[in-house]
Amino acid sequence: MPSTGTSPEASHAAPLVVVANRLPVEYVGNAGEGEWRRAPGGLVSALEPALAGRPATWIGWSGHTSDSTEPALPEAIDDLRIVAVPLSGEQVEQFYEGFSNGALWPLYHDVVVTPAYHRPEFVAYREVNAVFAAKVAELAPEGGTVWVHDYQLQLVPRMLRDARPDLTIGFFLHIPFPPVELFAQLPWRRQLLEGLLGADLVGFQTHDSARNFLGATRRLLGLDPGGDRVDVPDQDGQRTVRVGAFPIGIGAAAFDTMARAPQIQARARQIREEMGGFRLLFLGVDRLDYTKGIDVRLRAFSEALAEGLLDPSEVTMLQVAIPSRETVEEYRNIRDEIELLVGRINGDLGRVGDPAIHYLHQSVSREELVAMYVAADVLLVTPLRDGMNLVAKEYIASRVQETGAVVLSEFTGAAEQLQEAFIVNPYDIEGLKRTLAAVVASTPEELARRLQSLRTNVFEDDVDRWVRTFLATLEGHVP
Ligand code: ADQ
User: Fold this and answer.
1) 8 A C-beta contact, residue 250 and residue 390
2) Could you tell me the maximum CA-CA distance found in the chain, to the nearest angstrom?
3) How is 75-133 classified by DSSP, letter by letter?
4) What are the pLDDT digits (tens) for 172-203?
5) 394 CA to middle of ligand 1, Å?
6) Which end of the chain has less Cβ packing within 10 Å, N or C?
7) How far is the CA of 255 from the centre of ligand 1 (A)?
8) The domain containing residue 60 runs over which residues?
9) 232 shares a domain with 167
């Protein structure tokens, strides 16, 4: 079931400029003595097939502030030209940690924590968006295509159109777009909507998000959207902006290949043995974020154990949490909360050398991650809200043995596609506990049937298809 690769159109298409908050690079080694490398995984791997044979430039922030001492970035990595947008420490604090992650992130995730709206932070957001837009305007070739990514850069499309009306501009939001009742809280709601409407195509993960956005243009801007488009007034009359759902996929074939490798299979067996041999292994893998519902699943798992719905001699759990945004207060709080919970559960339910929950707060390599996917019988994905959730798709693609189960929150974008998962409401702990027990009680045939259907979905709607469909829609040749 490998993916189909680059479309013929893409290889002869106009030069492409990708704009994202982060460049696809990482600095490896001590300050001043290391080197820049291509960051593994992420958006750059996703875009690779579309970039092949097409001149491409990536514009973004390096992850290091302009006051730090790392050597200059190389001009290109492989065939991809990279251009850094320098940000000062203060800009990172105000634009990124402040407005992007303290206001927009919680607002767009159903206000699961209270967003903080600070005027100077929005000023910094606008300034940084202007710096990005100016850099793109300077570098994009005449008539080129520009693909802007995510919530940190929502003002860029409008700014860019004003400066360079010759460009074709696409925007994709990786996180949910909230219902208008929540979005309306934002003091700068007009600016953001108008910013996004500078694009020719605005893409979302789900139909719900696309609908929410179109609804907001009606309610807050007085426009008259219809179906998958909205007409916006322009200097020369009006322009049509297309709006749609483009659910992101993963490089499924690469996960499949990695999962079959003998060393990964051996490591998976070792993980299982270390975690209690024959027991069923439940797994959670997330960035440590308050939207991911890590606490929810820990509570449900431990209550199910305490009440005898699950038998500790039959099940065990591993939770891996990748450190994330640790300079933001809410993230420090959720870490404390989760670690308190793990300690309490293990104190109550664990035995010497045999905790009820194995917990790692660290990033793990791609190989180790895939070995965990191969080892685990059940994946728990319980976000309170999530744009898509790639972990669910990665697990499914790695289950080369064609067994395994995914417990999936209905509030993820992935739930719109992965309907054969065990769909749960993460706010309903009792329901979640019953689902965990139901998964354990399912027959192997039932689990295999569901997993095979999930695999078909993940391999068909993979990342190549996502890129091809988005760019073809943007550039006017629907595949
Ligand atoms: P994220 O919120 O970061 O992405 P997700 O889609 O789950 O969420 O992607 C996380 C990535 O990090 C996965 O590729 C996963 O393998 C990796 N990862 C997680 N934990 C790890 C660990 N401990 N060690 C190493 N790697 C780990 C945002 C949106 C999502 C949307 C994506 C893509 O919030 O909803 O799916 O963008 O559009």
Assistant:
1) yes
2) 74
3) SEETTEEEEE----HHHIIIIIIIIIIIIIHHHHTTTSS-----HHHHHHHHHHHHHHH
4) 999 999 999 999 999 999 999 999 999 999 99
5) 10
6) C
7) 15
8) 16-248+463-474
9) yes
